[in-house]
């Protein structure tokens, strides 16, 4: 092994980039960056029936959106079939793998009998060559699979970067299939050849793979390949304590992008979900990279907390410069068929403190670009007949003031004085008419962003 840290993320392109995979990618990326190493992206597309180009594209787009830049890849497993077959041939030659001609029916029968005897269902190694053993005659027309000669006895132990020492006995596992009859390798084999060829030193992945690791370690050993270190990250649970899944809300990175979350907020939140640096809740990517040395990873499952993510996002929105926020809000507006203009940064400045997402910011901005329809209830409550003359006076005054915040504020004051009413009496109905809601930032600031014509037009609806 060279001294260089090399990590990877190896998603299967059978759907969007899942939040759990995104978090593992983040840890792998940050670990490599922390150590001045390299990060590899590998697409594990050997499940030909379920893998799609569309999923691959989505995964690449999400990695890009999150800013998880990789030094190598994407490397596609289906483009490496020759290499896998070469290694299989070497293993058959060395006697660490063998052909098995069991039909699916025979395997079913085998398992059925084991179940009836109350045993664990494991392949009984009937095709495994042993000294002095007579193998069954090779049947006609049954395409063989290749199985790995797993050591039948002994413990496999590794010191997991997240979970500490893990031991699994070889009696728990069997001679797994490494090459299917169609010549496509299985996950546990391809992953080892790839991690070996790509000189991966540290494997971070979800803990659903813990039971695969003994096989992989045994294959590494059979190949005489150096072992990477493994770190198995616990699952993410939904609000209900069950594994986070589609049925329980958005689980794809894409959905959060669409719903107005900022990539830097997502990274921050995902990082904290299963890792900590003291009590720090908000930190930059650079800070994370400088802190992420593989320690302080949590051994127990993290709970997805939508409210906390929204809070983190709100902090990032608040801190983001208006000029940088505006294009993101413009993109949200565009989805609604609304074209924004040069007023958008000022709108962001005025409303961003009250928004958790760019979608919420676009909701506010839309009032400046598209018509608003106040609710009947708001109209009835705030735009009562008694206040209509006050609104009319305001419309008159605004027709001739200089169109800037201070003069608008002065005009409002004059109207209040003339009618002897207090600010809320006028402000509430004007907000309802202009913005469609009685809760907005200060009236003069809001009015100044509208054009004079638009303000007068909406006030006249009273
Ligand atoms: N393709 C596997 C997955 O998506 C990768 C597991 C690994 O990182 O080894 O779960």
Automatic annotation (TrEMBL):
Residue ranges annotated for the Aminoacyl-tRNA synthetase class I anticodon-binding domain, each copy included: 337-462
Catalytic activity from the UniProt record: tRNA(Glu) + L-glutamate + ATP = L-glutamyl-tRNA(Glu) + AMP + diphosphate
Short motif ('KMSKS' region): ranges: 243-247
Domain Glutamyl/glutaminyl-tRNA synthetase class Ib catalytic: from-to ranges: 4-311
Protein name per its UniProtKB record: Glutamate--tRNA ligase
EC number(s) stated in the UniProt entry for this protein: 6.1.1.17
Residue intervals passing through the bilayer: none
Motif residue range(s): 'HIGH' region: 11-21
GO terms of molecular function: ATP binding; glutamate-tRNA ligase activity; tRNA binding; zinc ion binding
Pfam entry (one): Anticodon_2
InterPro entries: aa-tRNA-synth_I_cd-bd, aa-tRNA-synth_I_codon-bd_sub2, aa-tRNA-synth_I_CS, aa_tRNA-synth_I_cd-bd_sf, Glu-tRNA-ligase_bac/mito, Glu/Gln-tRNA-synth, Glu/Gln-tRNA-synth_Ib_cat-dom, GluQ/Sye
Gene Ontology CC: cytosol
Assigned protein family: Belongs to the class-I aminoacyl-tRNA synthetase family. Glutamate--tRNA ligase type 1 subfamily.
Function: Catalyzes the attachment of glutamate to tRNA(Glu) in a two-step reaction: glutamate is first activated by ATP to form Glu-AMP and then transferred to the acceptor end of tRNA(Glu).
Primary enzyme class: ligase
Primary subcellular site in the record, as a coarse category: cytoplasm
Domain of life: Bacteria
Keyword field: Aminoacyl-tRNA synthetase, ATP-binding, Cytoplasm, Ligase, Nucleotide-binding, Protein biosynthesis
Compartments it resides in: Cytoplasm
Gene Ontology terms: biological process: glutamyl-tRNA aminoacylation
Oligomer and partners: Monomer.
Phylogenetic classification of the source organism: Bacteria, Pseudomonadati, Pseudomonadota, Betaproteobacteria, Burkholderiales
Gene transcribed to yield this protein: gltX
HAMAP family hit by this protein: Glu_tRNA_synth_type1
Residue numbers binding ATP: 246
